[in-house]
Amino acid sequence: MKKNRGKQIFRIVLLTSTAFSLFYVPWILVKAWILPLPDTIQEQVEEAIGHGFDGMIVYVDEAGKPPAFYTGGWKDRKSKTPADPNSLFKIASISKLYVAVSITKLVKEGRLSLDETVAYHFPELVGRIENAEKITLKMMIQHRSGIPNYTDNPAYWENEQDNGKLALEFALDLPASFEPDEDYEYSNTNYLLLRQLMDKLLGYQHQRFIKERILIPLNLNNTYFSIKDVDLGDVMSGYYVGYDDDFKAREYGMLATAQDVGIFLRALNDGSVFDDGEKEIYPYVYDHGGLVVGYQSLAEYHKDIDAVVVQFINTTDFNGYEWNLSEITINRIVKILRRGSS
């Protein structure tokens, strides 16, 4: 009797907790995931816009086929300007791939070693970055340094645009996230330091090196390093859920067209971005995403179908909802490609 009563109580608790958890399920994500796969990528783009994205650009480079472009929604919501596949977009952390390739080139030239430490290059940071004597360049490139991420510091977001000019200060004098090379944690501070290291080593801004050694050889004429370098009218507007503001004028570093990112990603994966002996040194990943206020991007290479897919979406939040929806969308696009229909 007691045993049966215990089972009943357990079932009631289980059902109650299940009902409670289902109340908080983001059903649009479930819907986006389980809907029947459309016949074409364009239909998938339009479906994603229906889920709440303001605007979207997709670039597809399948080996043996001309590049294909797909758009949906708005380039500018206020003026009702349709999304333009040639718009410039803030690529955010996709820029880390360009930095990693540049560091690789400097290592091959003998100007750097992946085993050199933070303390060696930034002696002034010893005591301000824990384990500076043990953290290597390779660990920073691979996000295995344990250096805290400055964007995880709440104080940074109190005035994000101004604080961005002093971003390193928001990662100093904090305990390490873990011992060097003992774990993985994505940290923007790693690449902030790597960019500063390039500036010191080269004696000029690292952007010039990226342009001369990566952009020009690949004919990437629609990739830029600052919003100041471009006509603002060429930039896709960016939106944050719950706000009417257009965040287009904010400074977030590199901008590029989807095609330029796609060409670079193809060159990274087929090795043509490298000179002799560099690919064997390269220590980082071959795909990447980017997220800043108003802009989220994914750039992927799929070896099984020899295809590059770049997806730009100009609607964000920082709660993970919009990012998860974008990942579901690109995964469905890749499924359509694998099915042989675009």
Give a written overview of the molecule.
The protein is α+β, with helices and mostly antiparallel strands. The chain has one domain: 3-Layer(aba) Sandwich (Beta-lactamase), CATH 3.40.710. Helices cover 36% and strands 14% of the residues. Strands 3-2-1-10-9-8 form a 6-stranded antiparallel sheet, with helices on both faces. Strands 4-7-5 form a 3-stranded antiparallel sheet. A hairpin with a 2-residue loop joins strand 8 and strand 9. Helix 2 runs parallel beside helix 11. The longest helix is centred in the first third of the chain and has 22 residues. The protein is globular. About 5% of the residues have low confidence.
Total domain count = 1
Q: Would you give the CATH topology?
A: Beta-lactamase
Write out the strand line-up for the largest beta sheet, numbering strands in chain order: 3-2-1-10-9-8
What is the arithmetic mean of pLDDT? 92
Shape: globular
Can you tag this structure with a few keywords?
11 helices, 342 residues, alpha+beta, 11 strands, Beta-lactamase
Task: Summarize the topology.
Layout: H1 2-23, H2 27-34, H3 41-50, E1 55-62, E2 68-76, E3 81-82, E4 89-90, H4 95-108, H5 118-121, H6 137-141, H7 160-163, H8 188-202, H9 206-215, E5 223-224, E6 239-240, E7 255-256, H10 258-270, E8 288-292, E9 295-302, E10 307-313, E11 315-316, H11 321-339
